Amino acid sequence: MFTTFKLDLSQLIELTDDQFYKLCRVHPDYKFERNAKGELLIISPTGGETGNQNDVAPVMGSN
After folding, report:
1. What parts of the chain have a pLDDT lower than 70?
2. Distance of CA 8 to the CA centre of its chain
3. Using an 8 Å Cβ cutoff, are 4 and 40 in contact?
């Protein structure tokens, strides 16, 4: 299970595509998305059993 934090930055800034790209590159450990309303979504990484399954899946498929 993951947690999503939603930030509405529209009253403060208009995040351009280039700025969003740079934000993602500067913080590679975070998963960022934007929705149709322009809100910034920060999605927590998977952990526990789900995280372990995600780590194993690419290794199993590489044979």
Report:
1. 1, 46-63
2. 16
3. no
Do 27 and 61 form a contact (C-beta atoms < 8 A)?
no
Question: How far, in Å, CA of 50 to CA of 10, rounded?
Answer: 34
Strand partners, 43: 4, 31
**Tokens linked to 24:** 């993602």
pLDDT at residue 57, as a whole number: 44
Angle at 6 between CA 1 and CA 21, to 5 degrees: 100
- Which residue in 2, 22, 12, 1 sits closest to 41, CA to CA? 2
What is the reported pLDDT for 19?
94
The DSSP output letter for 32 is E
Residues 6+ apart with CB under 8 A from 42: 4, 5, 7, 30, 31, 32
Find out whether 13 and 23 touch, Cβ atoms under 8 Å.
no
